[in-house]
# Entry
Amino acid sequence: MAFPHLARTDLPAHPTTLGGYARLVREIAADRDRWEPLVRYDALTRWYSRLETGPGYEVWLLSWLPGQSSGFHDHGRSSGVMTVVRGELTERSLTAGGEGSRALAPGGLRVFSTGYLHEMVNASLEPAVSIHLYTPGLVEMNQYPASADAVANAAAAADAGRHRVH
# Structure
């Protein structure tokens, strides 16, 4: 295979549960020899590379220079697990209930569900690197305006749509 880092064969089985996805993200994060040589930084935009794919999921490596941000977004139909492996990121989330902010440092895991609306930003003075697993694989990332009112309205609409019976 031309890209051996995309298809792991050392796992007993591909994960299918939240616990399995979290375990996989922790294993990849701990294996610095696997991802560290791949890291690149781009002064113009966040850099990213797919690390692995499996049935129903994919894993991405992202780098963030100081000041780089994802903008407010959701992941469409995908849920996921992410961790910071170098530096620190700040996550801002907005729901119909209000705004929240948290610092994400190496070692912690963040789990998010379908329709979760947030922004990731490197607010520090040092580069950061993170690993993200999406299930199903990421096929859409909806961007939202940066104003708190617009994002809160979008979050309320997303919450209402998620709870609608189809």
In short: The beta strands are 47-54, 57-64, 79-86, 89-95, 98-104, 109-112, 118-121, 128-135.
